[in-house]
Q: What sequence folds into this?
């Protein structure tokens, strides 16, 4: 008899060790685990303790050995450059083993960190897998971040080598990466020994003799390197994500638990079969890209699509449908914002009707709350299940989802359905007490968390404990607020911290405030995320100027916009800074950001009882209206 969704969840909660030991059979281990889950004691309890394995071996070598050598591993489709290429598993293995040889020749070994600053090209996956092959720890930095953010990551990871491309390409402009990279290395206190540069024809980079190595030259003479056995609990990568300060959190992922969880998810959550084509339209710089562009599809023997383009404008709102039809994509995973963009440009789905999408079985959405209007539009257009699922960089794979590998649960718009394998979700009030069904509170997950979730933050285990586990002992604090309905469906409503979600990208308003407060004329500032029809949210900054400043406000506002772009990067989409006379505060001095956001979004709000001076709110509303916000 086949297992149902309910039975799966029941089994994972009542017998986690049995459940995950069975899932681990899908992975090759050089040495089996002594313990599937470590006993109570050191925190967190680790998975597959004592086991030895290698992620690259499981993603490439074993598939080639098992007869998948001629199957496409990666289909690279770049409407932005017009390039298309297919790399078989055998070709990926050859490239990866040789690039691992290049890195080894530069002194990279087990446990060393390698920063990867690359766009959406196959060489990025090669570089990631080559690190995995050597047991080195990669840290991929998204191309839309500025030099300063790159410098922070170089310093925190103390990278021995940086792998970069000469440029990224955005619609209408080429972004030379090398000046950003050189700038970041100048800013960083830690200096890498070498940079390996992949030259793209759209903008070649100047090389620094002695330090910089040309990718193609090095590959021409490289000897393939074998897979280095690593402990299941050793780190595979560090991925920095926004925290509640300007200092990003280095989320650490292990090798063993990660492979087991991702492989399980491909079959059971996404309902895929090895040999089929899976497409996550995201970026390798984000967790979705790590998990579902590179690792999960390859670990499971699927073909993955690496898409260098945008949902609209490269060249039009039909590009997603062209790719699905051309590459026989069975499952698409993207952010709701991509569908909002497509719907905006092609509300009647005219492009969609030009393609044969009969192979597509489902669409999964994540990264931000899926608004029901977009979900309904996507369902009507595609005629396949549209599944909202909830997860975070910290977990690395979905926490809640409807599962295509099981009986599909009823779809409730606005909910990512129910917890999957081993996630035991509760809703707590501020005192840590469980609240009744339907009541909003902090969404938390009872520990131990399932395999694949983060065991620590890089160089910051105390922060790991204080940010995630200390507030509610025994639980992981997701920093999302929401509720569970009477059928056990989870509704994720808002963040409880300063994180906002801009086009599915996670950004810290606190980080932006740190940049703004460094402006010489700014005495005080606040950044809030206001609703945006396309991107879900966009940041708006409020500036209070130091007394005596009498330069034109517009000048200071544009300087502030430029500062955020230069310090954090264009991805912050920070386009609006508004000078106000004062910020609304409580009597104890806390800035009422939530109230400002509600005014901007024209939402009703309760006048905070502790507000210092209620009249300020009218001034804020006027300033917002002048800037084009707060208009119902
Ligand atoms: N390198 C350099 N710059 C980048 C970049 C990169 N890799 N990615 C984005 N940027 C820049 C963009 O060029 C843009 O700059 P601009 O302000 O000069 O125009 C800015 O960062 C914001 O980019 P983006 O969020 O992509 O906005 P957009 O207006 O160009 O496009 C969408 C809007 C909705 C089409 C786009 O956000 C999108 O495709 N979203 C899907 C997001 C996604 O996949 N998220 C992953 C989570 S699953
Ligand atoms: P990231 O770590 O970048 O993946 O962002 C994680 C955050 O995105 C979560 O904490 C949520 O706030 C938000 N998020 C992701 N998926 C969903 C979803 N399906 N519904 C609502 N919010 C989501």
A:
């Amino acid at each position: 008899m086949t297992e149902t969704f309910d039975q799966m969840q029941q089994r994972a909660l009542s017998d986690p060790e049995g459940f995950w030991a069975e899932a681990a059979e899908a992975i090759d281990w050089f040495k089996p685990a002594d313990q599937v889950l470590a006993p109570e004691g050191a925190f967190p309890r680790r998975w597959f303790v004592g086991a030895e394995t290698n992620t690259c071996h499981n993603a490439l070598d074993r598939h080639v050995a098992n007869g998948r050598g001629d199957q496409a591993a990666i289909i690279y489709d770049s409407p932005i450059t017009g390039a298309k290429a297919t790399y078989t598993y055998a070709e990926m293995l050859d490239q990866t083993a040789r690039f691992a040889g290049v890195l080894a020749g530069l002194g990279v070994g087990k446990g060393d960190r390698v920063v990867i600053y690359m766009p959406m090209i196959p060489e990025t996956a090669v570089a990631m897998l080559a690190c995995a092959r050597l047991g080195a720890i990669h840290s991929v930095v998204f191309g839309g971040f500025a030099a300063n953010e790159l410098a922070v990551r170089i310093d925190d990871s103390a990278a021995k080598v940086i792998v970069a491309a000469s440029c990224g390409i955005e619609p209408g402009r080429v972004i030379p990466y090398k000046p950003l990279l050189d700038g970041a290395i100048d800013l960083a206190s830690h200096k890498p020994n070498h940079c390996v540069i992949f030259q793209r024809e759209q903008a070649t980079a100047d090389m620094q003799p002695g330090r910089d190595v040309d990718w193609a030259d090095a590959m021409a003479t490289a000897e393939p390197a074998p897979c280095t056995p690593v402990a299941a609990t050793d780190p595979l990568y560090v991925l920095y994500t926004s925290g509640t300060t300007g200092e990003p959190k280095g989320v650490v992922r292990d090798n063993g638990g990660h492979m087991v969880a991702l492989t399980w998810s491909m079959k059971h959550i996404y309902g895929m079969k090895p040999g089929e084509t899976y497409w996550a339209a995201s970026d390798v710089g984000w967790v979705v890209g790590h998990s579902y562009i590179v690792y999960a599809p390859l670990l499971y023997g699927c073909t993955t699509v690496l898409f260098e383009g945008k949902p609209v404008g490269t060249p039009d709102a039909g590009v997603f449908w062209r790719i699905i039809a051309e590459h026989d994509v069975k499952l698409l995973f993207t952010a709701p914002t991509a569908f909002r963009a497509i719907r905006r440009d092609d509300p009647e789905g005219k492009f969609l009707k030009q393609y044969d999408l009969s192979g597509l079985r489902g669409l999964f959405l994540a990264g931000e709350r899926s608004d029901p209007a977009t979900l309904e539009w996507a369902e009507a257009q595609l005629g396949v299940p549209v599944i909202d699922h909830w997860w975070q960089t910290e977990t690395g794979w979905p926490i809640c989802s409807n599962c295509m590998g099981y009986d599909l649960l009823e779809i409730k718009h606005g909910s990512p359905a129910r917890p999957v394998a081993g996630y035991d979700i509760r809703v707590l009030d501020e005192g840590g007490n469980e609240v009744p069904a339907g009541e909003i509170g902090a969404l938390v997950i009872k520990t131990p968390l399932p395999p694949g979730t983060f065991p620590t933050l890089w160089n910051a285990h105390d922060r790991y404990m204080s940010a995630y586990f200390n507030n509610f002992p025994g639980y992981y604090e997701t920093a999302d607020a929401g509720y569970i309905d009477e059928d056990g469906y989870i509704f994720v409503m808002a963040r409880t911290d300063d994180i906002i979600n801009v086009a599915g990208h996670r950004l810290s308003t606190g980080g932006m405030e740190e940049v703004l407060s460094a402006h010489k004329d700014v005495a005080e500032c606040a950044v809030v995320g206001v609703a945006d029809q396309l991107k879900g949210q966009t940041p708006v900054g409020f500036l209070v100027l130091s007394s005596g400043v009498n330069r034109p406000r517009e000048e200071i506002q544009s300087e502030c916009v430029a500062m955020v772009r230069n310090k954090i990067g264009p991805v912050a989409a920070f386009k609006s800074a508004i000078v106000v006379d004062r910020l609304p505060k409580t009597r104890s001095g806390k800035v009422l950001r939530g109230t400002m956001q509600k005014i901007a979004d024209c939402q009703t709000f309760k006048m905070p009882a502790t507000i210092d001076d209620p009249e300020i709110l009218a001034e804020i509303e006027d300033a917002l209206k002048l800037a084009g916000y707060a208009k119902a």
In short: The radius of gyration is 24 Å. DSSP finds 18 helices and 29 strands in the chain.
